[in-house]
Amino acid sequence: MSTQTANAPSEGSGDSGSSGSGPYSVDNPAPLITPPRARTTRTPKATRTNFELYGWLFMRLSGIVLVVLVLGHLLIQLVLDGGVTKIGFAFVAGRWASPFWQVWDLLMLWLAMLHGANGLRTVINDYAERDGARLWLKMLLYTATVFTVLLGTLVIFTFDPNIR
C-alpha cells in the first residue's frame, strides 16, 4: 500500500476532511502539557549531576537484591528452620552469633531503608508543591531513615544474648 492511498480518504466513508492519521492534525494539534515546576537557573549547568538517574538505577538494582534477600530469609527462617513457632530471643541470639546472618540482616536493613527512602523522596518531589513543605518533608524522611539505619546497625552488631 502506498502512502498516497493510505492517507487518502476512503471512498464512500462519508468523511471527506479526515486524513485518517489520528485525532490530531495541523488544524487540531495535540494539547501541550507543561511541567509542574519549571527548571530554575539557580544551579549552574556545570554543577548538575545525574542524581535522578542514579536514584532510578539504585531502585532497580536494590529491588532485585532485596527480592533475593527477603525470599531467601523467608525460605530459610520460616520453611527450612521450623516456622514461626521456633523464632524467639534464643533463636535470634543464635543467628546473630554468626557473621553471615549479621551481614545478611544488615544488607536487608540498609537496602530496604534506602530503597524505601528513595521511593518516598520521589513521592515528596512529585506531590509536595511548596518548596518549604518539600524541604521539611525530606528532612523528616532523611532523619527517620538515618535514625532507623543507625539504630538497626547498632542492634545487629552489639546484640548481647546474655542480657538478664
Structure characteristics:
164 residues, single chain, mainly alpha
User: How many strands, what sense, and barrel or not for the largest sheet?
Assistant: none
Based on DSSP secondary structure assignment, what is the total number of beta strands?
Answer: 0
Tell the overall outline.
elongated
- SS summary, helix count: 5
User: What is the C-alpha radius of gyration, as a whole number of Å?
Assistant: 28 Å
- Proportion in β-strands: under 5%
Give the helices and strands as they follow along the chain.
HHHHH
Could you tell me how far the N terminus lies from the C terminus, measured between alpha carbons in angstroms? 85 Å
pLDDT below 50 for ≥5 consecutive residues: which ranges? 1-17
Mean pLDDT: 83
By secondary-structure content and strand pairing, the structural class works out as mainly alpha
Helix content: 55-70%
Describe this structure in words.
The chain has 164 residues and is an all-alpha fold. Helix 2 crosses helix 4 and helix 4 runs antiparallel to helix 5. It is elongated. The N terminus is likely disordered.
Précis, in short:
With 164 residues, the chain is an all-alpha fold. It has 5 helices and no strands.
SSE blueprint and pairings:
Blueprint: H1 3-7, H2 51-80, H3 89-95, H4 99-127, H5 131-158
